[in-house]
Amino acid sequence: MENMISILIVDDEESVRESLNSWFAEDGYSVKCAENAKTALSILEGRRFDIILADLKMPGMDGLEMLRRIKSMDKDAIVIVMTAFATVDTAVKSLKDGAFDYVTKPFDPDDLSHLIRNASQQIILTRENETLKSRVDSLTSVEDLIGKSEGIQTVLREIESVAPTNSSVIITGESGTGKELVARAIHANSQRKFYPMVSVHCGALTESLLESELFGHEKGAFTGALYNRKGRFEMADSGTIFLDEIATISTKMQIELLRVLETKSFVRVGGNKEISSDFRVICATNKDLKKMVEEGTFREDLYYRLNVMNIHVPPLRERKDDIPLLVNYFISKYCTSMNKPLLTIEPAALKRMLDYPFPGNIRELENMIERAIVVGNSKRIMLKDLPFNKELIDSDVESLEDFEKAFVLQILNKYNWNISRTAQALKVDRVTLYNKIKKYGLKD
Amino acid sequence: MIHQDIILVPCGHFEKRFLETIARRVGFEFNCPVNTVEVRIELGDAYDPGRRQYNADKLLKALSSLVLANNSSKIIGLFDVDLFIPILTYIFGQAQLSGRYAIASAYRLKNERYGMKSDDVLLQERFIKEVIHELGHTMGLVHCYNPVCVMRSGTYLEDIDQKGSTRCYACRKITQVL
Q1: N- or C-end of chain B: fewer Cβ atoms within 10 A?
Q2: Residue B1 domain-assigned?
Q3: Is residue A233 part of a domain?
Q4: Helix %, strand %, coil % for chain A, to 5?
Q5: Which residues on neighbouring strands pair with residue A198, listed in sequence order?
Q6: What residues are paired with A240 via a beta bridge?
Q7: The whole model's pTM is what?
Q8: A295 contact partners, CB below 8 Å, separation of at least 6
Q9: Which of A101, A136, A171 is the last residue of a domain?
Q10: How close does chain B come to A207, measured CA to CA in Å?
């Protein structure tokens, strides 16, 4: 990489130009020389050089004036000013005007090598940064939101309209519908995309842990707080904070959260210093927040503060047209990651999938395809490779709720009511599983 | 096999055995005949009283003005004086990249210059590396990142001691193609 770096040497002394030219040529750099500032500037109008080594004292335009002109042409140009008559004043001046470094002639060979190596590293990092920034768009596009159905197209349109704004968004939808993916798509298409998106799973944390997680804590704030720790709001500065399962937070936390959203400032647990952070908030829930407000379990003021824009992600059963697309997408994704040839799917298997209500939504479908690719032996995904439970499919349950209840109970029994293993098998978190158990009264 | 010969031009006091060893090792490395030709180069013209050093560019020019052999020979001047180029405080050697001429000096390769005990064996090994390194440049090789390759850049004695005295596989391949 260093070999691809170009250097322009500007010095009125021929011996200096020749010395540097041969020194850098031996290092494999592409080198060009100019005997004065005027020639150098005309060369720079035609092409860009990564590093410019310029003498300070030259007849006509001096090195400082040339530095200013180069910087006005290309603010990222790395200019190293050389001089045989070093003074603190000129050194400060050149550095203030944007010189990368200031060196006194003659240099120690090792100093010159270090100088060029440092400049090269900066160039390489800048190039990498530019490349990565340009890749961010494609990496975090909304392409992962697969579907042609009206439901998902509406979601995509809503993402497009809300992303460039700073408004708070609530994403609603059943578990496994891809709410976090929608949040990521909003973040990735916003002006905050070069800053972090910090996710917090509110349902997985107790009230005190959530408080410390969101606001951070000072050393000694509680037992085990051995160090100062930044909170998620602080980490999300200039970016986005994604609060998943927002409906699970306590009333106290709702008040705290409202205050933070209003003022964009907070105090760490155990601290007394007000910390400001500029973040955008996106929440997700599988609950009906409006209903919770009516029931008095969710604060109305917080609800309206968060619900500037609501995006509802439809469950998979309401967009069955997307199942073939999603199946192909996941086949391609997992075959690539498992280094397997691209599989197809047996029509009977696809038909069964289209008939299946997918209570676990896309997460369940994805898991199903991944499993089928792992266990399948042929070039096609066969019906037998899919984890459909015949007994359950063929049973008399008709409503989705009854189906889900029976299914959850069956998996719970299979794992002897081990919550962690059952949640893992269902690809839901433990809180969701507890909620299902409570909802369907599965435990006496 | 490099289809050219190499000429060593000692410009200073070097023992015969020292020069023979250098010629043998250089010949072995480049697999070509190596001859030693003694000529007189006026060092005074290259001396810079202000720096109390010898201008390597001038010495290289003086060497290239000598008519020593056919046009395909690579010629390296061996010196025992403190070399510099105008922009650097000192150098161990200098070469024309993909050219014919190079120079190398034993002056800064001596232990005693750094307050250490004199070591002729080590000096000879360092000088051999420096000579092969500069000749590598005349054959079109640029600095190599392989830590053991003789073409690795070395600005301190420690750098020279750490690297090997032969070209790495990649540099050998390049020299063969060239």
Answers
A1: N
A2: no
A3: yes
A4: 55, 15, 30
A5: A241
A6: A197, A280
A7: 0.53
A8: none
A9: A136
A10: 56
- Mean pLDDT, chain A, rounded, equals 85
Report the complex ipTM.
0.78
Q: Which residue of A13, A22, A28 is in closest CB contact with B143?
A: A28
Closest listed residue to residue A257, CA positions, set A287, A220, A232 = A232
The residue from A75, A110, A136 where one domain ends is: A136
B19 located within any domain: yes
A444 found inside a domain: no
Tell whether B34 is covered by a domain: yes
Q: Which amino acid is at A226?
A: L
Q: Which two tokens stand for residue A388?
A: 């459909």
On the CB side of A91, how many CA atoms lie within 13 Å of its CA?
Answer: 9
pLDDT tens-place string over residues A168-227: 999 999 988 989 889 988 998 888 888 888 889 988 888 888 888 898 888 777 777 777
8 Å CB contact between A328 and A146 = no
Whether residue B95 and residue A26 make contact (CB cut-off 8 A), yes or no, is yes
Per-residue burial over A88-119, b = 16 or more CB atoms within 10 Å of its CB, e = otherwise: eebbebbeebbbbbbbebbbebebbbebbeeb
Distance from CA of B137 to the nearest CA of A (A): 7
Task: Give the Cβ contact number of residue A338 at 10 Å.
Answer: 10
Four-point Cα dihedral B109, B46, A59, A39, nearest 10: -70
**B44 falls within a domain:** yes
A70: number of Cβ within 10 Å: 25
- Taking an 8 Å cut-off on Cβ atoms, the answer to whether B142 and A26 are in contact is yes
**Tell me, what amino acid is at A49?**
F
Using one digit for the tens of pLDDT, what is the confidence trace for B69-95? 667 789 999 999 999 998 889 999 999
Q: Say whether pLDDT at A309 is over 80.
A: yes
* Closest chain B residue to A14, measured at CA: B86
